[in-house]
Amino acid sequence: MTSPTAAVIRTETILFARERLALFWIVLFPSLLLVALGLVPSFREHNPDFGGRRLIDLYVPVTVLLSMIMAAIMTMPATLTSYRESGVLRRLGTTPARPASILLGQVLVHAAAVAASSVIVIVIGWVLFDTPLPGSLVGYAVAYVLALAVSLGIGTAITAVSPNAKAGQVVGMVVFFPSMFTAGVYFPVEVFGGTVRDIISFTPYGAASNALNDATSGTFPQLMDLAVMGGWAVVLYLIAVRTFRWE
Amino acid sequence: MDRLRKTYGDKVAVDGISLSVHQGEIFGILGPNGAGKSTTVESIAGLRVGDRGSIRVHGIDPWTDRAAVTEVLGVQLQEAKLQPRITVQEALELWSAFYPDPEPWAALAERLGLGDHLRQQFENLSGGQQQRLSIALALIGRPRVVVLDELTTGLDPRARREVWDLVRDVRDRGVTVILVTHSMEEAQTLCDRIAIVDSGRIRALDTPAGLIDSASAATITTFETSVPIDLASLRELDGVTAARSEHGTVTVEGADGVALAVIDALRAQGAAPQRLRVAAGTLDAAYLDLTEADAETETDTDQETVR
Q1: If phi over 0 gives left and psi between -120 and 50 gives alpha, with beta otherwise, what is residue B257?
Q2: Record: contact A96-B99, CB cut-off 8 A
Q3: Nearest CA-CA partner of B290 in B161, B164, B187, B148
Q4: Which residue from B282, B283, B227, B234 is spatially nearest to B259, judged by alpha carbons?
Q5: What's the mean pLDDT in A9-14?
């Protein structure tokens, strides 16, 4: 741990561990929500409309996506816009460490927190409510990595287009609710059919939800869903790279 | 630095500044807010690239080789904060990891009076403590040149003196210091040479003493008299730039040697000066004088263009 970049990442990890509120929303809240829903008897009834699956089964991928939304839309842009506004990035630019290393550090710690949260959610669902583990492991991994990439893309794009921390909060809120909806936090995406479902499937979290559900059921996700996520990721990173300012 | 020019949209922040700072001196850049001081030092640090001109720091071009310049240049920026929850010790350790041969941070923290606050988080430090930490971070990589922007803003008088001592210490070890300030007192006590910058240009560049001598109020003579005296005749004396009387106290400003002429003139008038004091002019007066003179010249040119 001697290179400047490694030192910055290490420091950002220590600092992130101090952000209890962020850790609560990213790591703890999704599992708490899953447990609360699982305690409702009707959520544990098999439903022929969902191919015999129970609502609680559908909520496992939903809570996985919920933690990504919390990390990428709620906490990461807030930290990065405040770093920019208070001159942390500018200050780092005068040292041999690159200011980009702090962005990398933030992306890594948020990704790690999301991964931890996902493992907890999947294990808790499996132990307490007998929810299925991913049937297609490779398919799940591909869908998961793409979903995480597109989430962090949303977060960096929000940071890039927001001139200051306050604007970042507003933009974050505007993106937050549609993301929650399309990820299926209010009603699992499977509830919808027809045109509404088609539209949702073209959003990053709609496609992510489809792909994770497919992989959980044991089939490889549809290429269309993976392509939608990949396409969004490319567009979002392009926006971020083109509009990002260090100060 | 040669003919640096930087504009933001229509606004010219720096308009052709050329200067050269010698190894091991404290060089002051003094001027009002918005004069282009910060833009100048940010260009030196490679944070901004000028529209015209060039800069070399120990032979390195900060605009094309920013990575190399960070190795020889330590920077304390005006109003640049750290991560709110980072502790003093963590910040010092982090910055130590950036440089090949960092100064031992514990001793540095001790010298800057941060020894008792190592576990405190940045957001809980007082303004003065944040400032001192910022200075420590600028020095930790053993830079050959250090830029200190608004060094003592927010420090109490005792802390200010301690920081000044530290800056002299750093200079005595052969480090070049570029000090940006709008405090006259700071510039006068610390700097070996000062550039007075206004509206993106250098108005004067000299030692503090040289700047004071060149100003209209190099010496200030004050005295009290019981009898009314003829101020007009005093104003006509060689070298006198101003003479005024307030509540029986007469103040005469002018070049070196004016005091003797004033005493002679008073003797001729039959007046005996009491509580006679002769003081060297302050940089304050010199600064106002230099920027004022300039403002007048500018007005003149404006009128000429109108005609």
Answers
A1: left
A2: yes
A3: B187
A4: B234
A5: 95
